[in-house]
What we know:
Blueprint lengths: L1 H31 L2 H46 L1 H21 L1
Amino acid sequence: MANRKMTTEEELLEHLRKTVQDAEELLAQASKAGNEKADELRSKAKDLLASVQQSFDSGKEQVVEKAREAAKATDTYVSENPWRTVGAVSVAALLLGIIIGRK
Length: 103
């Protein structure tokens, strides 16, 4: 699952890079072109940026859903194992205190 997550993030970043590069090229062409051609190129750039926004929105929805699932799983575990949770948090706090105390 972690490997798939990295692949998805890499794909999303690559898509973003390519879209921004395409938009920059279109805007550069628009600055050199006449009014009619410039309007057409600006429209294409807006469409590309809208595509990126849509990709981020769908990615955001997936992240929010995964966070909700993780929160529910954590809540269930803590409800079923309160003393284990207290022990684990205590050990983590002790280790953190030791690490901070050494500095």
